[in-house]
Design a protein that fits this description.
Number of strands: 13
Largest sheet: 7 strands, parallel
Number of domains: 2
Strand order of the largest sheet: 3-2-1-4-5-6-7
CATH class of the largest domain: Alpha Beta
Distance between the termini: 17 Å
CATH topology of the largest domain: Rossmann fold
CATH superfamily of the largest domain: Glycogen Phosphorylase B
Radius of gyration: 21 Å
Order of helices and strands: HHEHEHEEEHHEHEEHEEHEHEHEHHH
Structural class: alpha/beta
Helix content: 25-40%
CATH architecture of the largest domain: 3-Layer(aba) Sandwich
Shape: globular
């Protein structure tokens, strides 16, 4: 089945490299794919969903066998063109408000957790997680608003993309989608994430040891920051210069003792920035602490590994699948185990060296170029089938 075929790709040591841009032979072998994309997250979303969409589209705009139409469903979509060009590092796309106003397209891609408008074209939807169903909002209106785009995808999409085998199983379990309609395509790691000196650290932490958390600890309870912080305080009950800080890179952070908010440095909305700030935070950290109890991929895990940063992660959801044997795994609900793991990773240089080497190797098995090539192959298949 399609899902099984793509799921294994990217984890083997011998992999066929995708060509970006395509060779003359491949350009001559097929006509350009006319792809329409819901671009609502491309120029504004700083979460992993936005980073994913930009990573794929930046590779598509570099190809001459893809004709890209970005859709901004509003009256004046041209107002977004400059921001979209900055986000993708290119102006090689059409911009329309609806498919009715666009040139003919072959297939439409909804990359952002659901379908937000209807069309007569065959469509592919990337469902990153089923969080609004696994952890539904208690307020009926907010719950309905969060769940509606997912249910629209279930009703209308020809195929689905999951970002891990765990995610594929979740889509099957939650929505009863046939597994043969779900392709697993892993995320990659941008080449900008690599080992090196931490040159852009905020002055408050430049001379301090610290553990790093990437994400929004307040808006996303599944990131499990409260447990992580409890373990951190139990590991170091007293403040002092020798105690590592707990640095948060994300939209916000609680004003708790020992926590330093480094800002939303995961923002890559400008293609030229190359994630300098976030990369420095990874490079300077003792370790990345990823305590989530629900992730369908866990992009910071691979970014940290690519920078040579050890990772402590929850043994839960997709994280063991993505991290393999290259992380120190801890149960997500065990404060004592996390307390011991934080102490251990901070004190044990040999453990950090082992994880650093294993992580660098693990990160090489995930490529955005290969991911984009698999997306393109799926879109072509859907366009050719017409469903």
């Amino acid at each position: 089945m399609c899902g099984n075929r793509v799921a294994s790709h990217g984890l083997g040591r011998s992999r066929a490299r995708a060509e970006f841009p395509p060779s003359a032979r491949s350009r001559g072998a097929m006509s350009p794919l006319r792809l329409a994309v819901d671009a609502g997250v491309v120029a504004q979303d700083t979460r992993g969903i936005g980073r994913y969409a930009r990573a794929i589209l930046r590779r598509f705009v570099a190809r001459d066998d893809v004709e890209l139409t970005l859709l901004q469903p509003e009256a004046f979509p041209f107002r977004h063109r400059a921001a979209l060009e900055r986000a993708l590092g290119s102006a090689r796309f059409r911009l329309h408000s609806t498919l009715r106003g666009s040139s003919d397209c072959d297939v439409v891609w909804h990359p952002a957790n659901g379908t937000f408008f209807r069309s007569r074209l065959p469509s592919v939807a990337t469902i990153h997680d089923a969080v609004p169903f696994r952890y539904p909002d208690p307020d009926p209106k907010r719950r309905s608003h969060a769940q509606r785009p997912f249910l629209e995808s279930v009703r209308t999409a020809a195929r689905f993309i999951a970002v891990s085998q765990f995610g594929r199983e979740e889509l099957h379990d939650v929505f009863a989608i046939q597994k043969e309609r779900i392709d697993v395509i892993y995320h990659g790691v941008e080449p900008s994430f690599a080992p090196g000196p931490a040159q852009m650290l905020p002055p408050e932490i430049a001379q301090r040891r610290y553990l790093l958390f990437v994400g929004d600890p307040i808006a996303e309870p599944r990131k499990n920051f409260a447990l992580l912080y409890q373990a951190y305080r139990e590991a170091w009950p007293s403040a002092g210069a020798a105690v590592p800080m707990l640095v948060v890179a994300g939209a916000q952070a609680p004003p708790w003792e020992g926590v330093f908010h480094a800002g939303n440095l995961g923002d890559d909305l400008n293609a030229r920035r190359a994630d300098e700030g976030l990369r420095s935070l990874y490079r300077g950290a003792i370790a990345l602490a990823l305590a989530s109890y629900h992730e369908t991929f866990g992009m910071p895990l691979l970014e940290a590994m690519a920078c040579g940063t050890p990772v402590v992660a929850s043994r839960a959801s997709s994280l063991p699948e993505i991290g393999g044997d290259a992380a120190l795994f801890v149960p997500p609900d065990d404060v004592q185990a996390w307390t011991e793991a934080l102490r251990r990773i901070t004190a044990d240089a040999a453990l950090r060296d082992r994880l650093r080497i294993a992580g660098l190797d693990r990160a090489t098995h995930f490529s955005w170029d290969e991911s984009a090539a698999q997306h393109l192959a799926l879109f072509r298949d859907v366009a050719e089938r017409g469903a």
